[in-house]
Design brief:
The chain has 5 helices and 8 strands; from the N terminus they run ααββαααββββββ. By secondary structure, the chain is of the alpha+beta class. The strands form 2 sheets. The chain has a 6-stranded antiparallel β-sheet with strand order 3-8-4-5-6-7. Strand 4 and strand 5 form a beta hairpin. Helix 3 packs across helix 4. The chain is globular, with a radius of gyration of 14 Å. The two termini are 28 Å apart.
């Protein structure tokens, strides 16, 4: 699957405000994968998540052959040269929140509230849709809009470079 272009991502609803913010951060980060400009990270996060469709779920798996939910979200962001914590509860606690009415494709969505934080995470890919690794043999886009167990959303891409 070829990466989404910036035009593809901009065509998604309500994307431009975060792209503007990402451009304001303005750095280029070198990774083992490629050079990624800060205004291109949304394309790579969503592209990586989509490339994993159909791969099996496995507890504590980080790919490439299988994933658990937070392994998938961590790898999708790493593919875009953005480091986030490994487990869903840490991703929830350490990343900046995104308000429900202002969520964007490539934000993280969290569900399954537990005593120490959310127990499940996914990547927002379109309004009301996510890609996640929910259970054995199932990595497909699912609606989060109709779920009653959504805890909230975070936007890892907006952390400053100093915190990476």
């Amino acid at each position: 699957m070829k990466p989404l272009t910036l035009a593809d991502v901009r065509a998604l609803p309500a994307v431009d405000p975060l792209l503007t913010a990402a451009r304001a951060l303005g750095t280029i980060r070198k990774t083992a994968y490629r050079l990624v400009r800060r205004d291109e990270f949304p394309c790579w996060v969503i592209t990586y998540a989509r490339m994993q469709l159909g791969k099996p779920y496995a507890w504590d798996a980080e790919g490439p052959g299988a994933f658990d939910c937070s392994g998938l979200t961590m790898r999708a962001y790493r593919y875009a040269a953005i480091a986030i914590p490994r487990v869903a509860t840490d991703q929830w606690r350490q990343e900046p929140p995104a308000l429900r009415g202002q969520k964007q494709p490539w934000d993280l969505v969290f569900m399954h509230p537990e005593s120490d934080g959310p127990g499940h995470a996914g990547v927002v890919v379109a309004p009301g849709q996510m890609i996640h690794a929910p259970q054995i043999g199932d990595v497909v886009p699912h609606a989060y809009a109709d779920r009653s167990d959504v805890v909230g959303f975070t936007r890892p891409a907006l952390l400053s470079e100093g915190k990476r």
